[in-house]
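S1.2 Input.
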Amino acid sequence: MGLHSTLLSLLVASSAGFTTRGVVKDHRQLNLKQLTTSAISIPFHDSNRKVNSALRLTLTSSTPSSLIANTSVATQPENDGNPKAEYDSIICGGGPAGLLSAIMLARTFGKEHKIAVCERRADIPPSPTDDTAWNDVARFYLLGIGFRGQNALKEYGIFDDFEQVSVPVNGRRDWQPGMTKVEDGNITPAKKDVISRVLPRDKLVGVLHHHLVKNYADYNIDLLYGFEVDPISFENEDDDVKVTISPCDSNDGPSIQSKTAFLLGADGSARTIANSMEEADAKRIASISPLFRPFAPKPFKVTRYNDDNPRIYKSVPITLPKDWPCDLNYSARSIGSRVTLEALPSNDKGDYCALLLMKPGDELAQEKCDPKKLRAFFDEEFPQFGALIDDNVMEQVATKPSSTLPAFRYVGPRLNMGRRTVVLGDAAHTVKPYFGLGANSAMEDVQMLGEAFKESASTSSDDIVPSAVEQFSKTRSGDASALVMMSRNMDRPGKLFFVTFLIPIILDGIFNKIAPKLFGPSMFGMFQRQDINFKQIQRKKRLDRVMQLVIIGSGLTASGMGLNQAVSLIARRLGKSRPLVGTGMAAMAFLASKLQKLAKSKKQAEATA
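S1.3 Output.
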């Protein structure tokens, strides 16, 4: 598994989606309030087009009408709960990045800006403060939200709601392989300027959804749950994007062809928009004469890596003893790194969701595994945690199927297609959840897109979408590839793990300690810096690596020359040949090393006795 697996900051549970459909009250019964700072009026494409005078947020789901609320603040006969034929912005994906993007666009363009958020899942997110919805802690995967995500939530006025339902993680408690006593766990306090806070991914979605419903009910936003988006054309004579919005269940109604001035792909690893962009650009390149094709702009492409170090997982609910801290990330590895256990707090009451990371072929990773074998493994390798898991839970974990981690992918060389389409978040850069950079970088994307809109508005009074799309793509496309490549280098198997991860971390620690102004900290330390982006981190570490190799090479050369002179001097004094003296010195060095190891082993044996 490697040392990197002990650095998980996101836990994934084996269940996905909600089993209970949420019910939203009529918006007129909610405690509605306007934002303290009203949205500024920013020109948008075709700003003279007709818009509804009665502005509202509409919540739509393709689930049966008896189970959901299709309501609006103002009654509009023309609004039947179906997608419209025209929007100012369409967002594909109703996860954290998609919902945060809706808030960003609403705050940027104001109430008259027509926004559609299309999410494939039909279930309306439950309230983040409804404890009954989150009792089964092993059903939901956990996100560790660091400074990137927290800064974005603060920017759009959501942090207070997020803080109320999340738990701080103030450090780690690790057990090294073979160390199984409770007291063997070593606590390392978090050394971060911004402490990460943890909550289930679906709870974060609930925070954003209910923040929208509460604070933007009189905005022109359609939340379309149970709908998917398929692009038709990214560019045409009308200078807009045409898509098809369809219910995921074909029995829930017809598809609607809609046009928009801005299409945002935030649908995660599904990559509906990104895949369509790749296909459209491939057709564009194919239509160019082979003679001129080398001079055409590089096509949009999704780079997909084969997972050469796959891991699957099972989630385990654990309730900590009262004398264990409830604000730590607990981590343990078995001997031989067969299984890694990582646990993060689901709440502040000591309920944890632990994750067992295993290789796909491991006996314990299989569905319908013998619970007795899993119990025996815990008794042998993780008794400090096994004592906290009763037989019923152990049986549930053993017999349920495992889940997979996402593979590394990124898009490039740009994040846009034409003037009015862009992708962000996992749709642009997918990483494994080892280092807490998935949801955090996605929300950071949204904030950077918002900054691009603001900057474009400050320099132009016309349609600002094309310039903002271009600026965001130029600013963030390099980060997308750098983030994925750096993360993948820390997840390589076998000998590559030592070359691309372990040795660089050791070298960074040594050189940064000797010359901190010249050499940066390890990759993990660089990820915590708020003054540098992913592309800059990649460049800095490449420069560090070159300088380290030059210094090491120079040192080895100087040492070799000195050793050569020493051998020559001794050979002359003894009247022996240089090869004979060199061989003798090597033999003495080998013997000294063996004697040192023997003395150390004897000392350890005496200490044990």
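S1.4 Remarks. The two ends are 33 Å apart (CA to CA).
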